[in-house]
UniProtKB/TrEMBL annotation, chain A:
Pfam families: PBP_like_2 (PF12849). The lineage of its organism: Bacteria, Pseudomonadati, Thermodesulfobacteriota, Desulfobulbia, Desulfobulbales. This is Phosphate ABC transporter substrate-binding protein. Residues 40-286 form the PBP domain. InterPro entries: PBP_domain, Phosphate_ABC_transporter. Residues 1-22 form the signal peptide. It comes from Desulfurivibrio alkaliphilus. The keyword Signal applies. Keywords: Signal. The keyword Lipid metabolism does not apply.
Amino acid sequence: MRKRTKFLTLLILSLVISTLLAACGDRGKQTGGELPFKSEIFFVGSSSMAPVISQLADQFTNQFRTWDQVDPGLPAAEIKISVATGGSGAGAKAVLDGTADFGMLARDTREEERGALANYREIKIGMDALVIAVKQDNPLARQRRDIGAAELRQIFAGEISRWNELDPALPAKEIVLLVRDVGGGAHEVFQKAIMGKSDFSDRAVQVHSMPSLVSRLAGNRQAIGYASYGVADQFREELAVFSLDGVVPSAENIMNGSYPVARPLVLVWNGELSAAEQAFLDYIRSPAGARVITEMGFLPLP
Amino acid sequence: MLHCRFEKLFAATVKGLTVAALFILLFIILFILKESLVVFRQVSIGDFIFGGQWRPVSLNLRLGLWPILTASLVLSALALALALPPAVGAALFLAHVCPDRLGRPLRSLIAIMAGIPSVVYGFAGVVLLLPILERLFKMSSGDSLLAGGIVLGVMILPFIIATTTESMEAAAQGHSVVSRAMGVSRWYMLRRLVLPVSRMGIIAGAVLGVSRAMGETMAVIMVVGNSPLLPTELLGRIKPIPALIALEIGSAPLGSIHYHALFGAGFVLLVLLLAINLLFYFLRKRLVS
């Protein structure tokens, strides 16, 4: 009994002490050298871009660990890349305030944002596009593979709620709308490009992630939904993809902007890049970076 | 000597950790309250709770929690209604009917049921339950209040069974020997003695089950469709509070009205749970006296 108490005490003590020690670690480790080398990069902005940058940062950190592994000319400081979300607007603002190194904007930058920064710089790292899809054997898909933006708005606003209202030859079944959660990136793109000022129907089924949305879409004949380009591509056997007013959602059409349900992924910064920042940007634009962007469901820009 | 000092140290550590845990809880509640107060500066509490539409990012902003709040209540009630009868039956069986040799493995099986991650229940719901409902009721999509109720009902079963079994075992002490001596049949004893005496335990199990059901998120998100509609039909889609928060908090910009409204929803959920627990507490008090 006594022995056990002692053991427990030691266990708890050691736990507490190790937590305290862990909290103290990493402090005061400064890199030497003439110029203070900044080994940390901080991203703030869009919540749809954050997972991509996080994933890129993870891969980058796992591959190199310290900056001198990336480029022998850099000091052997640990690579630290942090990502925080707060929306595209918050990203632009953080760069302006100097609280972040990069802003992540999942939209085109605004005139006032460009004007506010003394040395405004940006690069587009990719495109986020949504394709309109149904299951392969959906009755509408058998008839046609094109849909009008106006029709689409009516369907997603709930003004057209049964397939036969679209065409009397179709069954009188409910159109199941599959959408992502309100306020998310995909919702925002679709709202802007298709819905305009209309609200989504309250009856729409909100699915918690894009892969599960697409797999639900692939399993339900009565459903229609928007799918991010990358995920829809993984399911291309099971899905029928619609062109929008005649424009096919091909990589080419998305890149040149003729397919409307898309938006750019932009990184914004102020002034010159540090060596570390340049190295990470180079990684994002490398084939390995492009692969990560594709895996996350977006189209990398060359 | 040494172990005496250790003893004191141990006591102090344990006390310190307990206080810390309480403070964390207090801090969480205060934080949620503080974050949600912002929304009530823009929307009145009445409108927030009784408003019929939830459109947090629309041009004509609406922050009405009523369909979502009622969905949470109706869903938990449905889950409880589905789970309680089989749970009480199972508890009676485990406590008094089934032989020990079968009882022990059965109990550990039920304990395992409580430990299955909720996403697994949700997955089973999507893959097994939704297609069945679609075929059975000719629905376009199986996501519904009923699907959520069934999945949740199964999830809270082990909690109710465990609590109820314990109280039924305790309830029969003394009675069973006397009943047998007087030649009363086992079923009569169970019906007229054990069941009424163990109603406290049944209520406790129900409270535990409802509390769990109200807060369950992942399994529910996967099968209820998450459309903010009033829970008026069994086959209609709903969006309970945990689903609302989990789905939308990730994309609500920090400090926006949407963000604070979600905290407001969390606070309402907290108050609801507290109210339900208090209600049962008073019910119990009245039953005892």
